[in-house]
């Protein structure tokens, strides 16, 4: 069978593959410590589930508007104005099947073959694959620990060419957990305005911050940058709603209309009754978010302390999200070999950094219970010591 050429150009998701392998081993009765999936281990808060159940009981089980339930679009626009200083109306918002889908819709709507998209590395692994699927060109800009794994204004300016259409900004970051400071965001915004390109700000981890770190939405800084900004966000991480598949894209009306047209011919509307759970998530007290954030903060510190005590590993302290991104170069292994051996010999699942454009690193998620963290760190320490 001859498949479309675009399929061969895309790499399957390593995060999903390793998470699936870890689950399969567990199903066989093997004791696996998995730090692979970026998925909170908490249940979805009860009041959010209750709102969806109520919607089901009220018969909200039919097709809805492709761009999302009007009440949810209004609630998202209100959230963006109050929380992020972004003056959007409901017509500036589309509800999507997860945050990933919001980014895919945007790239399909905006990027023509040959258009360039600037992506700082380490990056979330799906960014360049989405660009590839539409025939765009990913311009990867490497960063390292010396800049906190963050792109500088000088790097961004140097990467821009006449073919540049979009810059992807992710703060807090997956996989590094790093957060751009307000001054850093302002400096990047000026480069975007000067070059007259678009920026999409992936803010899915915005509520998971530590040690006084501040999230600034780039579009809030001025009208000039606001007009060039798209916001990608969702409910998966902050509200532990990964399986609900609820995300959104906000931005200029023309782009949102284009994304709605694309969605109308692909998935159509997001699950109708699930959207009422999202409304409850936004309009209810945010205590549940803070409780989970505090738990993540404790886990982060334990895992960070354990990792930095292992000779041969070095790990920067993240300001947000729920990941650590240690440098493994002193082990003499590249990331895929490291991760394969760790899972096979010590039953610990982590993600190779090559998936994120950084082959000397691995990603660990601490969105799991403390007992698993302690056991997994014991096994990781034993493995690294056997290599050094």
TrEMBL record:
> Does the entry feature the keyword Ligase, yes or no?
no
Q: Which top EC class is given?
A: transferase
Domain (Aminotransferase class I/classII large): residue spans on this chain: 31-380
In the UniProt record, does the keyword Transferase occur?
yes
Q: Organism's domain of life?
A: Bacteria
Mind listing the GO biological process terms from this record? Answer: amino acid metabolic process
| EC number(s) stated in the UniProt entry for this protein | 2.6.1.-
Q: Which UniProt keywords apply?
A: Aminotransferase, Pyridoxal phosphate, Transferase
> Which cofactors go with this protein?
pyridoxal 5'-phosphate
Mind listing the GO molecular function terms for this protein?
pyridoxal phosphate binding; transaminase activity
Q: Which Pfam families match?
A: Aminotran_1_2
Output the InterPro entries linked to this UniProt entry.
Aminotransferase_I/II_large, AspAT/PAT-like, NHTrfase_class1_PyrdxlP-BS, PyrdxlP-dep_Trfase, PyrdxlP-dep_Trfase_major, PyrdxlP-dep_Trfase_small
Q: Member of which family?
A: Belongs to the class-I pyridoxal-phosphate-dependent aminotransferase family.
Which protein are we looking at? Aminotransferase
Q: Which organism is it from?
A: Nostoc sphaeroides CCNUC1
Q: What is the lineage of its organism?
A: Bacteria, Bacillati, Cyanobacteriota, Cyanophyceae, Nostocales
């Amino acid at each position: 069978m001859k498949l479309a050429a675009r399929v061969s150009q895309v790499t399957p998701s390593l995060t999903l593959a390793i998470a699936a392998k870890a689950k399969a081993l567990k199903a066989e009765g093997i004791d696996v410590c998995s730090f692979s999936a970026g998925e909170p281990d908490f249940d979805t808060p009860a009041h959010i589930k209750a709102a969806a159940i109520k919607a089901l009981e009220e018969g909200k089980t039919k097709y809805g508007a492709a761009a999302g339930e009007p009440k949810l679009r209004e609630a998202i626009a209100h959230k963006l104005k109050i929380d992020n200083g972004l003056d959007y109306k409901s017509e500036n918002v589309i509800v999507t099947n997860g945050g990933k889908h919001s980014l895919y819709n945007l790239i399909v709507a905006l990027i023509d073959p040959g258009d360039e998209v600037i992506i700082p590395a380490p990056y979330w692994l799906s960014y360049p694959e989405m660009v590839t699927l539409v025939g765009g060109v990913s311009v990867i800009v490497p960063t390292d620990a010396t800049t906190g794994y963050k792109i500088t204004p000088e790097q961004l300016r140097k990467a821009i060419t006449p073919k540049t259409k979009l810059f992807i900004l992710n703060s807090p970051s997956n996989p590094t957990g790093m957060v751009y400071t307000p001054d850093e965001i302002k400096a990047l915004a000026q480069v975007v305005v000067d070059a007259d390109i678009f920026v999409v700000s992936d803010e899915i981890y915005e509520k998971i911050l530590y040690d006084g770190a501040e999230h600034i939405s780039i579009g809030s800084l001025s009208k000039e940058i606001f007009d060039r900004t798209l916001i990608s966000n969702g409910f998966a991480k902050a509200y532990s709603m990964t399986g609900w598949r609820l995300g959104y894209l906000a931005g200029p009306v023309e782009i949102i209309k284009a994304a709605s047209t694309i969605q109308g011919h692909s998935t159509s509307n997001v699950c109708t009754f699930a959207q009422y759970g999202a409304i409850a998530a936004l309009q209810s007290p945010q205590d549940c978010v803070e409780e989970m954030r505090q738990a993540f903060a404790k886990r982060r510190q334990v895992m960070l302390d354990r990792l930095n005590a292992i000779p041969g590993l070095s790990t920067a302290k993240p300001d947000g999200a729920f990941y650590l991104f240690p440098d493994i170069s002193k082990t003499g292994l590249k990331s895929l070999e490291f991760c394969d051996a760790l899972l096979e010999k010590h039953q610990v699942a982590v993600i190779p950094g090559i998936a994120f454009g950084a082959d000397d690193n691995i990603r660990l998620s601490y969105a799991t219970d403390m007992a698993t963290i302690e056991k997994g760190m014991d096994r990781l320490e034993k493995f690294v010591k056997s290599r050094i």
